[in-house]
Design brief:
43% helix, 973 residues, seven-stranded antiparallel β-sheet, five-stranded antiparallel β-sheet, 25 strands, 12% strand, alpha/beta, 47 helices
């Protein structure tokens, strides 16, 4: 097959991969399944897809269409060629504002489509929790809907036309047909004609009609995705008089790529909502109370009603980003119902929610009824949308698993159904997480099971079967929006009857006689507890690491990634994760890919050192260690930490490269060069000698190497006059951390920081301490970094308290105390490290803390006006500190601070200097940061707390960015 794949690759305009690395990365999605594909294709056009179809037929393999790869039922996992259209099929082809439709290619992201539509006051309604990376093709394939389906329905209700390729490579366009057009299509002597003729015969049969109408889910259930949607086609003309026109789009929606290969989609769009809305976040003492409250909420015609239970709310406490979004949560409710109401103004919204609250209280339901308005609504929705990923935060091997998470019943039946559901779980000693779409009778219910055990594997299937019988009792749908895939396919005969299941098989056979399109999904699926990520009774290796992972192992931490793909969002969605993917748009450069590859090697490697794999090194290469995943990944996968441990282990077998050693010891090298700073700066700054130095080190010739100051910050401080001596009384004393970058390079910034603190009334203390070890950490030289961490904890453990804290100018160095040190220091120092971690502050944190305490006053600063454009440091963003930097810069009365909505600047320490990373580094900068700086008005000051960020801004825009302390020092009266 190697030779045949090589020939195919030559015929494609796009790319084809069949190496181990790419096959591993596409062996999973967001489900519990894993199967190695034959190859991975990035088709560039229809011709490429036709070539792939011919190849699949000739070589008896299959094609698995894929967009973002966030499916939960194993839809895009299989043994054939995974065809990823997210790279090239990304164009918005046509917009018709008069008729309210837009035509797109399948790789267009849902949220980005709405950004395009917004100036036209139009909106594509269906909204999955993955909307910032979910693509329209995937939404059609799964018939996705989301939290607002009560108003907007599913993708099916919006899909007007689909252009596709059939299994013989022929091009078709599916759309609404009149009776005459339908008959004409049925008589065509082609595959297209055959599928129309089959449907005409099948649905024209009275027995089939009776079977479909008797056994498919209730029509009152808005979310029903069981099997192919023949029940909906049966309700169209010509099978029902005066019904809506026959349209195969209804069948394609929810068909999971098993019938045809979609190349473009025409969807209906709605007017952009204009009325303001508010979120009534009702707190309940029990889950059953919440479900009864949901029925009351629905009587008042909400836009949305979503549920979160205590289990998932507890998970939000352990995530840096989502913890801040808990601002509206009072106590520890058993469940919260998030109900959205709109109105012409806030007064009308308030009137509606007061009526809802009154009726609930009358019925003894709910104890806290906060109404959230304005920008804070987004924070509530972010908390709700993070639900899927947050569930993976559970330490250990027992996880909430997607197995019965997509059941839908009539909303009136929901309380009784959930009561019976939980009784079934109790029988097996299980508990489920409950969350999501209460308004439409679909809660995402996830029992907590250990799939690594034989018992867990067996329970996985047993629970699925028992709940399938329960759903059938309520005439519900086993799949509401996540699809059947290989997870629920084997239960379809139970759900709709054997007769109807045979009809589905006949449809698949007519459309795809050779089984080219995504076989083993919906019909003829393998047993649902086979091809899982984890094998029953698999023995995890005991792998020694330098970092600690709390109650987990490194393998379990990597396994926290459930594939939800939050790291696939683009810069248009905001946030920082994942900067390399934002630049390259390649799956291999996502946090998910790195976690998948690490899990694969730690699980299946036969080497003595499971980290010793070039495939793992390659996917880790573009990780910038920005720490965004630590906060923005709902599963809190700390890839920077994982990468550092990987590098240390990889070096143990392969040796430490010279550049890594030099960069890791940049503090020592700079200290050595400092006495000859003038000579060093002359050599490094000269074009000829500087480029020679860069070439020797492996840096890009387009970079400017930082200069070394002629005098260190420590030596300046030792010789300067001390403001506070015996008899004088400062507001407080504070230790200053003389980090390696401020002490040797950014000395002037360090001076201003110390002088600013003194002018504001603080005594600045200096003590001998070690370097931070930040460069060693970034290069994976963890054992050496541990020595520095140990030393610093020993130095400061007896000196820091609530009254005497440690501050620093460079965020990446001081935050090592809060982040890496607690998991790195020797065991006997761990308690001390944990205690002093919150006492080590960025200088902005300290200043704002003192301002809020009244120790720093606005009157101490100028009243002159200034506009400031702020780019935050990645690690400040990861710890939620960016608002603090904005707050500090806003202390002067007339200073206006605007945050640049940029992610990582792209420099990330030495990453952007390295010649092989330079282009990616600059691409990252060009996404948001560089354009924002270039477009600023004259006189606007650019602020950036990070040294790397300031260098990147200078290299990318020639603009001098200032540290916040420089701005504040200048602003002193």
């Amino acid at each position: 097959m190697e030779e045949q794949l090589s020939l195919l690759a030559q015929q494609l305009e796009g790319e084809l991969f069949w190496d181990e690395k790419m096959r591993v990365l596409y062996a999973t999605d967001a489900s519990a399944y894993r199967e190695m594909p034959l190859a991975v294709a990035y088709p560039k056009n229809k011709t490429d897809i036709k070539q792939l179809i011919r190849f699949a037929e000739n070589h008896k393999t299959s094609l698995i269409p894929r967009t973002a790869g966030t499916s939960l039922a194993g839809q895009v996992v299989g043994s054939g060629i995974v065809v990823d259209v997210s790279r090239y099929f990304t164009e918005i082809l046509e917009l018709n504002t008069e008729e309210s439709w837009v035509r797109v290619q399948p790789g267009v992201i849902r949220d980005e489509l709405n950004l395009f539509l917004k100036p036209h006051k139009l909106y594509f309604g269906p909204e999955t929790s993955t909307a910032n990376r979910a693509m329209i093709g995937g939404m059609v394939g799964n018939n996705s809907c989301g939290s607002n389906s009560l108003i907007y329905g599913s993708a099916r209700e919006h899909t007007l036309e689909i252009e596709a390729l059939l299994s013989d490579g022929s091009e078709v366009c599916f759309k609404g047909l009149s009776f005459d057009e339908f008959i004409e299509k049925s008589n065509l002597p082609t595959l297209e004609g055959a599928i129309y003729a089959q449907m005409r015969s099948m649905l024209g049969n009275y027995e089939n009609q009776e079977q479909i109408r008797s056994n498919f889910p209730k029509a009152s259930i808005l979310r029903r995705n069981t099997g192919y949607a023949v029940d909906l086609l049966l309700d169209s003309d010509p099978f029902v008089a005066d019904a809506e026109p026959f349209n195969f789009c209804k069948l394609i929606c929810g068909s999971e790529g098993t019938l045809a290969f979609i190349t473009s989609i025409k969807v209906h769009v709605d007017p952009l909502p204009e009325n303001p809305s508010g979120l009534l976040c009702v707190h309940f003492h029990s889950l059953q109370d919440a479900l009864r409250g949901n029925l009351i909420a629905l009587k008042h015609r909400p836009l949305v009603s979503e549920l979160m239970d205590a289990y998932i709310l507890e998970c939000t406490k352990g995530n840096l980003e989502q913890f801040q979004n808990r601002f509206f949560v009072e106590g520890d409710p058993a469940a919260i119902l998030i109900v959205e109401y709109d109105g012409k103004d806030e007064a009308e919204i308030l009137q509606k929610v007061l009526a809802v609250e009154a009726e609930m209280r009358l019925n003894g339901l709910g104890y806290h009824f906060p109404l959230i308005l304005g920008a804070d609504k987004k924070r509530v929705w972010n908390l709700r949308k993070a639900g899927l990923g947050l569930l993976s935060n559970v330490p250990g091997d027992e996880k909430p698993v997607a197995v019965i998470e997509d059941t839908a019943v009539d909303v009136e039946d929901l309380p009784a159904y959930i009561e019976e559901f939980n009784k079934i779980l109790e029988k097996y000693g299980l508990y489920a997480v409950h969350y999501a779409h209460a308004a439409t009778g679909e809660l995402h219910l996830r029992p907590i099971i250990n799939l690594k055990t034989e018992n867990g594997n067996s329970l996985f299937r047993t629970i699925a079967l028992e709940i399938a019988h329960l759903v059938k009792k309520y005439q519900g749908s086993l799949s509401g929006e996540h699809g059947d895939g290989r997870l629920r396919g084997e239960f379809i005969p139970l759900m709709i009857g054997d007769h109807n299941y045979q009809l589905l098989k006949e449809i698949k056979k007519a459309w795809d006689p050779h089984g080219i399109f995504n076989p083993g999904k919906i019909v003829d699926t393998p047993s649902m507890n086979t091809f899982l990520r984890h094998e029953p009774e698999q023995q995890d290796r005991k792998i020694k690491t330098v970092f600690r992972y709390g109650p987990q192992t490194i393998q379990q931490h990597a396994e926290q990634c459930n594939g939800s793909g939050d790291c696939r969002k683009t810069h248009l969605s905001g946030g920082t994760m994942c900067p390399s993917y934002m630049a390259t748009k390649e799956e291999k450069d996502t946090t998910r890919a790195r976690a998948n590859m690490l899990r694969e090697m730690l699980t299946h490697s036969t080497k003595a050192n499971p980290f010793d794999h070039p495939e793992l090194k390659e996917v880790m290469d573009l990780c910038l260690s920005c720490k965004a995943c630590k906060s923005e990944c709902p599963s809190s996968v700390d890839m920077a930490k994982l990468k550092a441990d990987f590098l240390q282990a990889y070096y143990d077998t392969n040796g430490v490269p010279l550049r890594a050693r030099m960069v890791g010891h940049v503090d020592t090298l700079t200290k050595f060069m400092q006495p000859i700073a003038g000579l060093y700066n002359a050599v490094a700054g000269n074009v000829l000698t500087g480029n020679l130095v860069k070439k020797m080190v492996g840096f890009s010739s387009k970079r400017h190497i930082p200069k070394i100051a002629s005098r260190t910050l420590r030596s300046w401080y030792e010789k300067k006059d001390k403001v506070y001596t015996a008899g004088s009384s400062p507001i407080k004393s504070v230790y200053f951390f003389f980090d390696e970058f401020t002490n040797y390079n950014d000395v002037e910034i360090g001076k201003k920081a110390i002088l600013l603190l003194e002018r504001l009334g603080y005594q600045v203390l200096m003590v001998p301490h070690a370097f931070s070890g930040r460069a060693l950490l970034s290069k994976g030289l963890l054992r050496e970094a541990r020595k520095l961490a140990n030393r610093n904890v020993e130095v400061f453990r007896g000196r820091l308290s609530a009254e005497v804290k440690l501050v620093a100018v460079e965020p990446s160095t001081i935050l090592t105390f809060r982040d890496e040190y607690v998991d790195l220091v020797d065991e006997e120092l761990m308690e001390d490290a944990v205690r002093i971690a919150p006492l080590a502050l960025t200088i902005e944190e300290f200043l704002l803390e003192e301002f809020l305490a009244g120790n720093i006053r606005q009157e101490q600063f100028t009243e002159e006006s200034s506009e400031i454009l702020l780019h935050g440091h990645c690690q400040q963003k990861a710890w939620g500190l960016l608002p603090i930097v904005q707050g500090v810069l806003g202390i002067p009365k007339n200073f206006k601070v605007k945050n640049i909505p940029s992610g990582c600047c792209g420099m990330a320490g030495s990453f952007g200097y390295e010649k092989e990373h330079y282009e990616v580094s600059m691409k990252i900068g060009e996404l948001v940061l560089f354009p924002a700086v270039r477009e600023k008005k004259g006189g606007v000051v650019v602020a950036a707390p990070g040294a790397s960020c300031r260098h990147q801004i200078m290299d990318g825009t020639k603009e001098l960015a200032l540290h916040p302390v420089e701005i504040l020092f200048k602003a002193l009266r």
